[in-house]
Amino acid sequence: MKIQKGDKVEILIGKDKGRSGEIIKVFAKSEEIVVKGLNLFKKHLKPTQGQKGGIIEKERPIKASKVILICPSCGKKVRVAYQIDKNGDKSRICRKCKSIIMPSKK
Questions:
Q1: How many Cβ atoms from other residues are within 10 Å of residue 51's Cβ?
Q2: At residue 22, what are phi and psi to the nearest 5 degrees?
Q3: What average pLDDT is seen over the chain?
Q4: pLDDT tens figures, 56-98
Q5: Domains of the chain by range and CATH?
């Protein structure tokens, strides 16, 4: 997949269309991602011995094809290209500003 954990993306379709957020989890096998604070649903939990019951909001995974990457340097919505340097290292680059895209680490 061309997007990674820590990337800022914008959702293209659905109830959160046009909203952007940071990727917090990537499921490479099913090509799904979880975006922080977006595509939320409410889950009703029964109380158990170690946990209080109630209604919580959780993020639901969304297909990676339904989001587009936002370049951290130019701030535009871009598709990702790859570039291989002389050492043989593969890096992602922005197609518009030609800068290297690194996911934001915390």
A1: 9
A2: -100, 140
A3: 91
A4: 999 999 999 999 999 999 999 999 999 998 988 888 999 999 9
A5: 8-47+55-94 (2.30.30.30)
CA-based nearest residue to 33, from 42, 24, 41: 24
This prediction's pTM: 0.82
pLDDT in tens, 63-73: 999 999 999 99
Q: Which of 22, 29, 16 is nearest to 4 (CA)?
A: 22
Q: How many other β-carbons are positioned within 10 Å of the β-carbon of residue 7?
A: 23
Q: Which two structure tokens, joined as six digits, stand for 57?
A: 């909001």
Cα atoms in the Cβ-side hemisphere of radius 13 Å centred on 79 = 2
Q: Considering Cα of 90, then 98, then 104, then 42, what sign does the dihedral take?
A: negative
